[in-house]
């Protein structure tokens, strides 16, 4: 059945899609809409591989729409602009993150927190207001309203800037909102993966003291020497965890799989906050007393608004913050997904779309 709006999808596009919950990606020809008056067409140059891509490919959140073209850490170049576009010119370097539209009228939208608009439209695996399903950045181009894209400062290297569009803003926003950024604050970052390692760099740039809590002892050198953390705890080492009890003002938990959070609550000082970012499937096991004694709180946070995303990108450019990446070809993406599932990535895969996608089209 033709979806409403599909007749406007007249521009051919090419990417890689999964057809089912095996998550296996392969070449996929589809179409995108004409560039609207307030929209830009972006030639995708690089796209980061977020763990959320993997969750969606495998339908771990039970909401995947196939065929599914993932990718919401997009850096590209403006290739075409609509008549009313004022923010971008052709050739500008541009970033597109996790959302491409929102209602623009609700309280969240009015407060520049489109990420909490209940009608926001996801960059992929979301249904646009015209009824079409969105396809993400593992593709040659994407069309987006200029209000939902950000400028990439020319001092940022493009490939390692891509992960900032999701991983970067997802760490930056809660640090600021929950008051964990700044001198005199001790922040714990749980899980040293794509989100976690960028989080360490932001927290250090804010002047906070940072302790990484990791399940992988072998990441200690990277955490302390490459990313600048002040401390490193192995989450399974009871002596280390015990010694750090009650020392942290806040913790950002980025772990992508089910794990105990009670020991993390124990690491907090009175009034401390545990912010959950990892979108794990199973509910957590928690005793009320662990929060009551110490007036502690547990919260969640989802990416950030577009204005804050631009602020974060500018801050990253100013402070020289970038992701630690392994650049891969499109052809390698299924192997990369297997490695990501096993935690075998230091610390973000980024697909070189511009140089490696087209050759996979036979
Ligand atoms: P990632 O690169 O795979 O990193 C996750 C890290 O979690 C791993 O490097 C590992 O770090 C740790 N980990 C994984 N499995 C574990 C286990 N069984 N027990 C303990 N630790 C484990 O993933 P990511 O891209 O950073 O994303 C992390 C999570 O955040 C995902 O669930 C993703 O969907 C979610 N996410 C949320 C938002 C948001 O706005 N809320 C935005 C983007 C992504 P160690 O080796 O150091 O333990
Ligand atoms: Zn993401």
Automatic annotation (TrEMBL):
Keywords: Metal-binding, Oxidoreductase, Zinc
GO terms of biological process kind: lignin biosynthetic process
Subunit structure of this chain's protein: Homodimer.
Entry keyword annotation includes Oxidoreductase: yes
CDD domains: CAD1 (cd05283)
Family named by the database record: Belongs to the zinc-containing alcohol dehydrogenase family.
Domain of life: Eukaryota
The keyword Lyase is assigned to this record: no
Sample GO molecular function, one term: cinnamyl-alcohol dehydrogenase activity
Cited InterPro entries: ADH-like_C, ADH-like_N, ADH_Zn_CS, CAD-like, ER, GroES-like_sf, NAD(P)-bd_dom_sf
Identification of the protein by name: Enoyl reductase (ER) domain-containing protein
Cofactor(s) the protein needs: Zn(2+)
Enoyl reductase (ER) domain mapped to chain residues: 23-351
Stored Gene3D superfamilies: Medium-chain alcohol dehydrogenases, catalytic domain (3.90.180.10), NAD(P)-binding Rossmann-like Domain (3.40.50.720)
């Amino acid at each position: 059945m033709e979806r409403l709006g599909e007749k406007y999808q007249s521009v051919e596009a090419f990417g890689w899609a999964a057809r089912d919950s095996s998550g296996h990606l392969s070449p996929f020809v589809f179409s995108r809409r004409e560039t609207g008056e307030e929209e830009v067409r972006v030639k995708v140059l690089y796209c980061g591989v977020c763990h959320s891509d993997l969750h969606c490919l495998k339908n771990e959140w039970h909401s995947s729409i196939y065929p599914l073209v993932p990718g919401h850490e997009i850096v590209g170049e403006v290739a075409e602009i609509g008549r009313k576009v004022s923010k971008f010119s052709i050739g500008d370097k541009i970033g597109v993150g996790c959302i491409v539209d929102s209602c623009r009228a609700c309280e969240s939208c009015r407060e520049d927190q489109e990420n909490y608009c209940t009608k926001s439209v996801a960059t992929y695996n979301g249904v646009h207001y015209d009824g079409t399903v969105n396809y993400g950045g593992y593709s040659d181009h994407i069309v987006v309203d200029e209000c939902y894209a950000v400028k990439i400062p020319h001092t940022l290297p493009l490939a390692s800037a891509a992960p900032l569009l999701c991983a970067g803003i997802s760490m930056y926003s809660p640090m600021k909102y929950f008051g964990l950024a700044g001198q005199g604050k001790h922040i714990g970052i749980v899980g040293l993966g794509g989100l976690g390692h960028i989080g360490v760099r932001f927290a250090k740039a804010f002047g906070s003291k940072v302790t990484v809590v990791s399940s992988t002892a072998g990441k200690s050198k990277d955490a302390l020497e490459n990313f600048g953390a002040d401390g490193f705890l192995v989450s399974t080492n009871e002596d280390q965890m015990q010694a750090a009890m009650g020392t942290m003002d806040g913790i950002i938990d980025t772990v992508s799989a089910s794990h105990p959070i009670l020991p993390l609550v124990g690491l907090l000082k009175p009034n401390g906050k545990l912010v959950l970012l990892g979108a794990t499937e199973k509910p957590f096991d928690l005793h009320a007393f662990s929060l009551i004694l110490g007036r502690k709180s547990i919260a969640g946070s989802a990416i950030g608004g577009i204005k804050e995303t631009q602020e974060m990108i500018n801050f990253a450019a100013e402070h020289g913050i970038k992701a630690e990446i392994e650049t891969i070809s499109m052809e390698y993406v299924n192997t990369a997904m297997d490695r990501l599932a096993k935690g075998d990535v230091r610390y973000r895969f980024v697909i070189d779309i511009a140089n490696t996608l087209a050759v996979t089209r036979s």
